[in-house]
Amino acid sequence: MTILDGKKVSNDIKDEIAEHVKSMVSKGEKVPHLAAILVGSDGASMTYVNAKVKACERIGFNSTLVELPEYTSEEELLEKINDLNTDPNIDGFIVQLPLPDQIDEQKILMAIEPDKDVDGFHPTNVGRMALDLPTFLPATPYGIMELLERYQVETSGKNVVVMGRSHIVGRPMSILMSQKRKAGDATVTVVHSRSKNLKEVTKSADIIVAAIGISEFLTGDMVKEDVVVIDVGITRIPDQTKKNGYRLAGDVEFESVSKKASYITPVPGGVGPMTIAMLLKNTLLSRERHNNK
After folding, report:
1. Which among 52, 80, 116, 281 is annotated as catalytic?
2. How many CA atoms lie within 13 A of 183 on its CB side?
3. What is the pLDDT of residues 180-205, one digit of tens each?
C-alpha cells in the first residue's frame, strides 16, 4: 500500500512555482498577485485563507486579504468583487466559501470575472472544462488529477466511482476522469445519497473518489483488493484524548480501507494541501495569460 502524500507533492509544486517566479523577477516581469475575500470569522475558513496567504509568501507571489464583517450585505460584497475584477494588479482572486446566509453564493460566483476566477467555479470556466478547452480547473479536482499523475497511477480503462455530485468536486471530477488526458480515459460512475446498491457499485471500482461529506462513510467491506482511494472529506470528530479536543477524519474509514488499498490519500495531508498548490498554479497561469495580452 502506497500513501499518496499530498503534502510532499504540494511542496514539490510550490518549489517549482517558486523557481518560475524567480525567473520572472530576473526578467523584470510582474509576479503573480492572488487576492482572497473572507466574509465573517468562521474558524475553518480563516485557517484555509491564512494557509493560502502563507503559501503565496513562500513562493514569492504578492497576496491581498480582504476581510469583511459577518453582517456584510450582498451589495457590499458585489462592490468589492467589482473592485478586484477591474484592478489590473490582481491576477486572480477567490471568495472563501461558505458565505453568511444573507448572501447568495451563486450570485457571488457569477460576479467574478472568469479571467480571474482561479477557483474555477464560474460557469464559463466549468463549460470550458467540460469541452476540454484551456481554462482554470477547479482546484481540488485539479489537485487530485495531479496527484494521480505524479504517482503514475494507471487510470486508462479503469472503473472510477465518484462519491458525491457537488459542483466543487464530484461533477468536475467525473468530467476530468472521463476525458482523454494523462490521468483520465476512465469509465466513470457518479453515486450520491439516492443511489441504490451502493456497496455493489463501490466494490466494482478500481478507483474511488470519496467526496460525499459523511465522515468515515466508506468502509473496508465496501471496496475490493488493490483499490485506489482518494479521500476528499474532512470532518472534525470530538476526541477528548486529543489536545485540541477533536481529530480530523475523512469520508473513508482509513483503518479498514487502507488494508485493501494499493494507493490511498491520508486525512489530513492528502487532498487538502494539493488544493492550495493548484490554486497557486492557476494564479501563475492567469499572470502568464495577462503578460501575453
Report:
1. 52
2. 19
3. 999 999 999 999 989 999 999 999 99
For residue 114, cis peptide bond before it (omega within 30 degrees of 0): no
Q: What end-to-end distance do the CA atoms of the chain give, in Å?
A: 47
- Per residue in 106-148, pLDDT (tens digit) is 999 999 999 999 999 999 999 999 999 999 999 999 999 999 9
Residue 152 appears among annotated catalytic residues:
no
Determine which one of 80, 91, 96, 231 is catalytic: 96
202 is in which domain, residue-wise?
Answer: 139-272
C-alpha distances out from residue 80 to 13, 75, 98, 152, Å: 31, 9, 17, 42
DSSP secondary structure letter of residue 222? G
If asked whether residues 95 and 151 sit together in one domain, one would say no
Residue 209 β-bridge partners: 162, 230
Regarding pTM above 0.85, the answer is yes
Number of domains in the chain: 2
* 96 is known as an active-site residue: yes
pLDDT at 43 over 80: no
Q: Which of 117, 119, 206, 231 is catalytic?
A: 119
In angstroms, what CA-CA distances link 193 with 166, 177, 238?
A: 12, 21, 25
179 is catalytic: no
Q: What percent of the chain is modeled with pLDDT above 70?
A: 99
